[in-house]
Amino acid sequence: MAQLRQDESILAEAGIEAVIVGPEKPEAFQRFWTVYDIPFVGLPDPTHKVLNLFGQQVNLFKLGRMPAQVLVDKGGIVRFAHYGHSMTDIPSAAEVIAALSERADNAE
Question: What pLDDT sits at residue 27?
Fold first, then answer.
């Protein structure tokens, strides 16, 4: 989430709204959002329905869920997905936007 926070203005300029889905219960999720003043929309998902729907992996050896970035357009189509292998495997907003632009160029 730190990477997203650093890239908040880049995402906004590209018309991308970040929605953070987390496995915590609503109360814990809200506390975290309040304490850290998170500038994004948050969705608690304690039953993991959304996280599983988008294929976020769990690695018990790394004690939890691996990072995943999935960009879904307004029509519900996945336009970009990156599934990290560690908490350091998170693309920057510039990398995501470049990948989206490359796919759009290849589609023409």
Answer: 93
Does 19 map to a domain? yes
Which range marks the domain in which residue 34 is found? Answer: 2-102
3-state secondary structure (DSSP) of residue 12: helix
Region of residue 73 (left: phi > 0; alpha: psi -120 to 50; beta: else): beta
Average pLDDT for residues 35-48, to the nearest whole number? 86
Residue 108 covered by a domain: no
Phi, psi of 45 (to 5 degrees): -140, 65
Q: How far is the C-alpha of 3 from the C-alpha of 18, rounded, in Å?
A: 12
Residue 38 lies inside a defined structural domain of this protein: yes
